[in-house]
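Methods — Computational structure assignment.
A single polypeptide chain was analysed. Its primary sequence is given first, followed by the predicted tertiary structure written as structure tokens.
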Amino acid sequence: MNPTERLFPDAEAMTEALAAEIAGALSAGLGARGRAGFVATGGTTPGGLYDRLRQADLAWDRVQVTLSDERWAPTASGASNEGLLRERLLQGRAAAAALVPLKTAAPTPEAAVAEVDAAVAAIARPFDVVLLGMGADGHVASLFPHNPVLPRALDPDGEAFACAAEVAQAAGASARMSLTLRALLDTRRIAILVKGQDKLDAWRRALAGDDQAEMPVRALLRQDRAPVAFFWAP
């Protein structure tokens, strides 16, 4: 299915629209099934979105939250995506949500894969919303171009929900845990949140080509399991 584009004049307008859409999707899940699932993303872009989303009038105690990927760094460090969620989303009424972290006490992501995979598999699915960022190189989650894990991680019919990845060029920490494409597609909707001209240019390149190893985001654009919406602001 073709992705939809939502281009906004500024970050505030984008944040307001996306927060409303995510809150609406979670509310619909709660109303229809008595529970809801949200896959959040890390990085610097979604902080303002989480500040707004946490104010939503939802039964947060029946919402499960996990992450699309995680740096293998202490939660209290500035590199931790879990730390971002705890600081910006899981506050106030949203503090009642159940967080399923991707970081464990294991020394490496490889040592934690089985535990994390089982934890993600135990979350009720399909998720109601998967929120992702996208790098200017076309990576999503911690699925980076030409990484050795891609053949398995981008298999939409694979059995794994999580995979370990070593990403030497990545900011924050090179050791990562990531959801696989199989997990990311097990959702009712996907939203990609980006800011800046370089990201819009990357999106256009992704749409124009087919090589998923070159730009892993293309795996989301060449599937018919979950609708994808692209949210962009300068």
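Note: The chain has a mean pLDDT of 97.
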